[in-house]
Amino acid sequence: MANILKKVSWSSKDDDGGGEVNEATSLVGSRRGSGASVAGKRNSRSRFLSSSGFRTVDLTDGDGISEEILESQEVFTSPRPKEIPHSENLLSQKYESLDYDNCENQLFLEEEHNLGVKRVKFMEAGRWTVCMAIGILTALVACVIDIVIEQLAGLKYKILKQYIDTFTADGGLSVSMVIWAAMNAGIVMVGSILVAFGEPVAAGSGIPQIKCYLNGVKIPHVVRLKTLVVKVLGVICSVAGGLAVGKEGPMIHSGAVIAAGVSQGRSTTLKKDFKVLEYFRRDTEKRDFVSAGAAAGVSAAFGAPVGGVLFSLEEGASFWNQYLTWRIFFASVISTFTLNFVLSWYHNHLGELSYPGLINFGAFESTGIAYYIYEIPLFLIMGVFGGLLGALFNFLNYWLTVLRIRYIHRPAQQVLEAMLVATVTAVVSFTMIYFSNDCQPLGEDKSADYTLQLFCNDGEYNSMATTFFNTPEKSVRSLFHDPPGTYNPVTLGLFCLSYFLVACWTYGLAVSSGVFIPSLLLGAAWGRLFGIFLSYMSKGAWADPGKYALMGAAAQLGGIVRMTLSLTVILVEATGNVSYGLPIMLVLMMAKWVGDFCFEGLYDIHIKLQSVPFMGWEPPATSHSLTASEVMSHPVVCFKRFEQVGRIVDILSDNTANHNGFPVVEEGENVVNVNEQGDADDFGKLRGLMLRSQLIVLLKHKAFMERSDVGEPRHRLTLKDFRDAYPRFPPIQSIHVSEEERECTVDLSSYMNPTPYTVPQEASLHRIFKLFRALGLRHLVVCNGDNRVIGLVTRKDLARYRYHKGGLEEVPLTQT
Amino acid sequence: MANILKKVSWSSKDDDGGGEVNEATSLVGSRRGSGASVAGKRNSRSRFLSSSGFRTVDLTDGDGISEEILESQEVFTSPRPKEIPHSENLLSQKYESLDYDNCENQLFLEEEHNLGVKRVKFMEAGRWTVCMAIGILTALVACVIDIVIEQLAGLKYKILKQYIDTFTADGGLSVSMVIWAAMNAGIVMVGSILVAFGEPVAAGSGIPQIKCYLNGVKIPHVVRLKTLVVKVLGVICSVAGGLAVGKEGPMIHSGAVIAAGVSQGRSTTLKKDFKVLEYFRRDTEKRDFVSAGAAAGVSAAFGAPVGGVLFSLEEGASFWNQYLTWRIFFASVISTFTLNFVLSWYHNHLGELSYPGLINFGAFESTGIAYYIYEIPLFLIMGVFGGLLGALFNFLNYWLTVLRIRYIHRPAQQVLEAMLVATVTAVVSFTMIYFSNDCQPLGEDKSADYTLQLFCNDGEYNSMATTFFNTPEKSVRSLFHDPPGTYNPVTLGLFCLSYFLVACWTYGLAVSSGVFIPSLLLGAAWGRLFGIFLSYMSKGAWADPGKYALMGAAAQLGGIVRMTLSLTVILVEATGNVSYGLPIMLVLMMAKWVGDFCFEGLYDIHIKLQSVPFMGWEPPATSHSLTASEVMSHPVVCFKRFEQVGRIVDILSDNTANHNGFPVVEEGENVVNVNEQGDADDFGKLRGLMLRSQLIVLLKHKAFMERSDVGEPRHRLTLKDFRDAYPRFPPIQSIHVSEEERECTVDLSSYMNPTPYTVPQEASLHRIFKLFRALGLRHLVVCNGDNRVIGLVTRKDLARYRYHKGGLEEVPLTQT
């Protein structure tokens, strides 16, 4: 056990960012009283794997932990606490930011200057080619998932049907149940072990993680090859294991990983560098490709290329650029086309292109009138209901997640929980099948493949069993399209209730799982129920429950995930029918409004529970009253343009202040050391900004000059040196600097960003936020009227302020 | 004639921006050699109304023209030149910028500070309400246009049919032709007079103008009530007059005007202030509503709410904000819903909601397979063809526009040209009808209403006549849906050729006209022809020419306007069929690529020909080598915090340097006057930024203090004073300042923006561009290392640099 735990335990050395640990420059307990008060709750010796797939980092695995922190944590000296406090009202210092603003240092400018027109065109062509590769690969992964799951499901059904047929005759149905439950639990166990012990970040749908990535937060391991492998195998297991999950959400994450991998022209995990696409090895370019990958994932999952683009934009991007959007669109189109081609081939319909996505809702009849105007109020009521039910779902899932963070944080526990859920799901299903006598005649027009006779007469099948045995995708389709009278209302009602609880319990398990399909299925079920009720009330005048099933599905999904624009398009593209576009929009809007009024969206909950410094779309409404000087972190550690190696090493090794950005100030002026708590007036005039990662590369390559050297350094680094180290820069501890070398000097002038963005100290939080968000910054230097550095604003300094009922709320920072 | 000309002639006094004339602070002939060399071409005494609806401003109506400029223009002293040079390689100084960055001065911060949580919510509710109003009103305007055109077309058809029936028997068809041509010319004349003499900016589709507005360029009169009225009446006349135009493009402009009007809670034209929504009286808020209006316009025109949102984003916005997008989406949904409701009511189908947009392509059969994979190469070929044809269209239209700018710049000429085109269109149509003997049996399945028998046998009709007599919308529909064999290939080929030329001639006339429908019709015609050809080649195996008509329409439209994402969605929503989504995308992408390779998009051409300082999506590729100090305008006129009224008035009245932004610098330091050409070191330290408009309001309200006053000014202005003057600030000439008042001082500190964005002088053009574009700035102050002002970057300084084959190109500035 300890061995296994060690395997997944986390040290800063295998982090994507290497030694980069902490964006903020604030000192614990210095300016931030609130931060200090939280320290008591902090448990820095524990590691926990979050249930929603966020991997948390134990900073104190290193040996540089400060006395101060250790003192405040005496209470938690037991190596593994029983309870870990949840923390949706904290921001964690452990997440790093990505830098979506190019560092235009001298090296970069020289490279750009030498770039000919041809090279520019070549690079543009490269971007399109990479997008094409992303689309194709994402679609192929989707095909693999789809085909394997279908094969497994067919196999499972076959075995089970055999047992049921055998035992039903003898009346020993409980044996079938046990076999079924055991089979499901076994398959889920495999998936869960992979996730819990292999790569916890592959749990869940991955959508919150991708949202964070596009927002500019580095979630460790989120775009690694290993994550992709675990995700794909995991989702196959969880879907085949009969859990109430879908394979669509994970496709989005898979697409993003593929994009991050392909665009870099190498795999750091496999230690294989193809020496291509080196120009794209920086956060800005990578982000663009990751959004294309996410879009391609949606496109493959739902056959919705436009929906994919909108998803990428609505959920992720804070940037909008026509060219980029076209590339994203291209990746999406290629993705759905490839999937369509391969699946049509697989199903022997080559040439017909009838499989645009993993899920296909089937065409709604477009002949005749789609809906009447007097149905719109009914749709709106469904929207309200969907919003309420979605909020309830989110609320329950929130508490479950809190409980999981507190009590179920060991991988073994997580695997057991997943197996338990799989068993319960199987048992509940079976019990319901057993008690429902909902026999339906076997017709030609049924879209269900897996029909079970059970206690029904010959020529009939148990519709409840079908609902549970089918993959959720097929069940959704049945609910949309089966003719009126196919489902017994009581059966459907029971199904809704049980599936709601099971789905809510399932999301957040340590398995790869999407929440789209369960939501759609749930909504389709109660929507159809609503349709049946209407039909009953109107004595058959409203005879089409399928239409209401579609609206219910939209309402429920909207109520849970709270997307509107992209979801409308996804649903319209997946149903292949535009005529329901307007009511779907209205339903989604209503569900979003009602849902937002009651409780947050599911993804936002999971992001908040992980204390991610996520930046909203807009600055908090009442943030004009705060100024930069109140918001910023200070004092700041600055470097001189010619800096001593020893001082750099000391500062980088100082774990009490895990800075990642260091302003470079005017030569010859006083440079305040962070430990001296100097007066602001002592700071030098701003000349540039260095990143920790750049300094690490400098130290690693010993780009020093002797004291006696004047002018040129011994050897000057090129951009290639920095790109080769990206994104896994080694920690400072791994770099040996001799006593002699400590006396050397480094010339930072050609490596620093000479024109960092700055704000005056009087600038309002509102203004800083806009600048920061619009440009995707990582550090923003605050200067006084003389252009002297007085502070540094980072993501955490801004994300700390939230608009809460009654006004601005300051969220404390924590180091766990 | 002179009287009429005077009426539309333009002085800076009736400009939206009043005295604000010129963003750039550069002096003619100072730093910009290229600018000076252009001066020879400049004709500052002429006014011309552009054929594409841009109204150009004659700056020299004022009396402050500099000697230098006058000297260089001796050649052009004739009051009205025969020829005006076209200028796609110039940038005009006459266009002002909009300010999409809030001025967070003390007044604003105080207001924000006092805003309670309730008020914030109230304002948010206000935004949604305004969007709803925008949606409803846009839809109602669309309904009015649609219904009036339909009535007029019916009336015209009735009269004409009567004549034709009478005269055909006698063999005197030429009489019918004359009557028809005269009728068309008459109707078009009314529309053209309205546009040419009433409001030239209402010409064309208005899409380039809205693009400019959203980009941040103020096109005078573009969002005025008068423009809306002229636009609506104009488009009715031009469609009813049988021109090759559509009513869809103008709807986008109409929606934008409605949005700008509704959101301000007053009409400056009608001098009616409802004293509501005063908070929204600034460029930022107005822009958000205008994008919602444009989206609502698309939504009403095509029944495509999602397409509307995407149009707004793809064509206009450089900002992306989830909340804003949702509001835009809401306006779009409301718009299509209202239109649907009203039109269904009008057509006595109340409750069925079967009229989602002005144009309805009709449902494509979704039963069976939509297309085979081997058809995709064919679609791609169509895309290539569409791109080529689109480029040819644009190329011809470009030369036409150049000729129009040169020779047809008087309103009377423009009216005559419009009448000529109307006549030619009628004659060409008639001739073609005459010579084609394309008789088709009158069937039940035809979607055409207006059938003409002409020389055909009883029970048959002339299909060519139908194509010409129908509104283009109906013709498109016929081409999509009429069964194979409806159209004779020769007829169709002739129609393509003639319609191509006529449509190309038409776009750019001084009439309100959209290019969407002519493009679709043209494409549908050659697409169908292609389909017929395929069917012939394959001996009937490919029997559905309607599908190819759809692809042709997409290819042609894409080749002309070069949109991809939004156009895909618009076409999918308008056809009501998702199954053609993928091929439509591929076709559009292909058309765009091929088209872009050959020639620019139609809207971009018209924007360039008007010398608008339009900022692209991305900085030019090789722009890293230029720095702020090379790009910026300098020297800059600065003010002190306590500035003398006399100096302010003098500087504002100085027409040689029409500055709009003035840095405010440290008290007590030297402040360089622009006439002294001082050394950069003499500049003061930056303390804030004042706008011309703010200074004007200060002067108007005499917010001075005596020399003897210390501390408080006599009266302090409130934000309301500034909002009341927005957006039509009076020119400085209209403000009388007495000699005594000139000696007074103004305290600028509470009005200036204390935290303007700045860049260091070493920052690259690339970096400045990104900052400028992302935040929608109007002025960007360039400071040196001591935070002293050394220059100012404006839109024109950045838009001047274009990426041209071979590298960076610097476009000269001109004052015309």
From TrEMBL, chains A, B:
Domain of life per record: Eukaryota
Family: Belongs to the chloride channel (TC 2.A.49) family.
Pfam family, one: Voltage_CLC
InterPro entries per record: CBS_dom (IPR000644), CBS_dom_sf (IPR046342), CIC-7 (IPR002249), Cl-channel/antiporter (IPR051280), Cl-channel_core (IPR014743), ClC (IPR001807)
Keyword Transmembrane: yes
Domain CBS: 752-810
Species, as recorded: Petromyzon marinus (Sea lamprey)
Alphabetical UniProt keywords: CBS domain, Chloride, Ion transport, Membrane, Repeat, Transmembrane, Transmembrane helix, Transport
GO terms for MF: chloride channel activity; chloride:proton antiporter activity
Name the UniProt record assigns to this protein: Chloride channel protein
GO cellular component, one term: lysosomal membrane
Biased composition (Low complexity): 26-45
Keyword Transcription regulation: no
Compartment(s) of residence: Membrane
Lineage summary: Eukaryota, Metazoa, Chordata, Craniata, Vertebrata
Chief site of localization: membrane
SUPFAM superfamilies hit by this protein: CBS-domain pair, Clc chloride channel
Membrane topology label: Multi-pass membrane protein
